[in-house]
Design a protein that fits this description.
Layout: H1 3-21, H2 28-39, E1 44-47, H3 54-64, E2 65-66, E3 69-73, H4 80-84, E4 85-90, E5 95-100, E6 107-111, H5 118-121, H6 125-130, E7 132-135, E8 138-141, E9 147-152, H7 165-170, E10 173-175, H8 182-191, E11 205-206, H9 207-219, H10 224-236, E12 243-245, H11 249-265, H12 273-284, E13 289-290, H13 292-296, H14 301-311
Parallel strand pairs: 1-9, 1-10, 2-11, 3-6, 6-9
Antiparallel strand pairs: 4-5, 7-8, 12-13
Helix pairs in contact: 1-2, 1-9, 2-11, 9-11, 10-11, 10-12, 11-12, 12-14
């Protein structure tokens, strides 16, 4: 890929980030993480308190790209067919016709994903992992750009189901937005005094631009030493004290690809250790399963990754 193509992709990346930042004030880090996952071909889980802007962030991304967007509200009575689709008998021609579910889109917002049963949650496993779904014995391919943004509320437990480890492993990143500063919150009040700024947000990139961005990310170089650093970092979680289940090789792949995306955004043609270190927590932490006694003693998934980063030598 030529420097011209890389620069064009970088410009697409920055235009989308700038457009979203008009709505998501004070959330620059979250926007960079979201777009890194998008450009790397991964998916994102947003876990935060109600009202922090999780759904708004997803909608702002969808409006910034001229692509298909669908929102699915997960509820306890939601069925796998409500996600994937179902065949309906047509009296006119006496045949069954498949009606596509919300998963057949470019950007899917799975809102409050932990409110659905594990059976329903598992309907997304094949879609997120392989870009296809198997319905009624037939394989159906999804769009070349298929990006899932799932949200969940960490403080609600009634009527919710924990996401299984296999589901968590399908998310390239998990991160929070957090509360903004009082000054930024005042600016949000002013912006929404008469209407929501989302209503005025237009697209700044096409589907073709985003696909070109994904190809450009693959062209960002990463040295063998940094690949080994990535693998050593992920592998160290498997033997870390207090960890019952460490991160899988899928975490290594996600960390490498998101680091390539972040390097592109920062104007580099190669990955540095800094990008890997910045992304280690959002890429790895949610995949770890801690020992029960460790959780009660105050050990956190984030803390395990941060301790691993401190102990692991950085390539020169």
């Amino acid at each position: 890929m030529t420097p011209t193509h890389l620069e064009a992709a970088r410009e697409t990346y920055r235009k989308i980030a700038g457009n979203i930042s008009k709505i998501m004030l004070g959330q620059e880090a979250a926007i960079r993480h979201l777009l890194a996952a998008l450009a790397a071909g991964g998916h994102v889980l947003l876990e935060d308190f109600p009202g922090t802007g999780k759904t708004t962030l997803a909608k702002a991304l969808a409006r910034s790209i001229d692509a298909h967007f669908k929102r699915l509200q997960f509820t306890p009575d939601l069925l796998p067919s409500d996600i994937l689709g179902v065949s309906v008998f047509d009296q006119r021609d006496q045949q069954f016709h498949f009606h596509e579910g919300p998963v057949f889109t470019n950007i899917l917002l799975a809102d409050e994903i932990n409110r659905a049963s594990p059976r329903t949650q598992s309907a997304l496993l094949e879609a997120m992992g392989e870009g296809q779904v198997s319905v009624e014995g037939e394989r159906r391919n999804l769009s070349e750009l298929f990006f899932v943004i799932a949200t969940e509320n960490p403080v609600e437990f009634r009527g919710t189901y924990p996401l299984p480890e296999a589901q968590m492993d399908r998310f390239a990143m998990q991160f929070t937005l957090g509360y903004v500063t009082p000054e930024q919150e005042v600016a949000i009040l002013s912006a929404q005094e008469h209407n929501h700024p989302l209503e005025l947000l237009g697209a700044v990139a096409t589907l073709a631009d985003v696909l070109a961005l994904k190809r450009a990310v693959e062209a960002v170089r990463i040295s063998p030493e940094l690949k080994r650093y990535t693998v050593d970092l992920v592998s160290a979680t498997r033997t870390a004290p207090s960890v019952q289940l460490g991160a899988s090789p899928r975490a290594s792949i996600a960390l490498m690809k998101t680091a390539q995306a972040m390097a592109l955004y920062e104007g580099l043609e190669f990955v540095t250790p800094e990008q890997i270190q910045k992304l280690a927590v959002p890429v790895i932490a949610h995949r770890l399963v801690l020992e029960p006694q460790a959780r009660f003693s105050g050990v956190t998934q984030r803390g395990v990754v941060e301790d691993t980063l401190k102990k692991l030598p950085v390539p020169a």
